[in-house]
Amino acid sequence: MSHTEHGTLERPEIRHTSLWHQSVTIFRRNLIHIKRMPEMLLDVTIQPVMFVLLFAFVFGGAISVAAPAGYREWLLGGIMGQTIAFAAFIVAVGLTADIDKGIIDRFRSLPINPAAILVGRSMSSITHSFIGIIVMSLTGLVVGWRIRGSVLEALAAYGLLLLWGFAMIWVGILVGSAMRSVEAVNGVMFTTIFPLTFLSNAFAPSERMGTVLRAIAEWNPISALVQAVRELWGNTGPAPADSHLPMHHPVLFTILWTVGITAVVAPLALRTFRNRTMR
Amino acid sequence: MFLIGIVTEGTVNGVGHDHAIEAEGLVKEFGDTLAVDDVSFAVPRGTVLGLLGPNGAGKTTTVRMMTTLTRPTRGTARVAGYDVLTDPAAVRRSMGLTGQSATVDELLTGRENLWLIGSLYGLDRKTTERVGGELLERFSLTGAADRVVKTYSGGMRRRLDLAVSLVATPPVLFLDEPTTGLDPRSRVELWDVLRDLVEDGTTLLLTTQYLEEADQLADDIVVIDRGTVIAQGTPLELKDASGKASLVVTVSRADDLAAAVERVRGAGLEAHVEEAARRITAPAEGLGDVTRIAAVFDGSGIEIDDLGLQRPSLDDVFLNLTGHRAEEVPDAGEDVGDSTVGDDAHEDQEVRA
Question: Which domains does chain B have, with CATH numbers?
Answer without folding.
Answer: 4-239 (3.40.50.300), 244-311 (3.30.70.980)
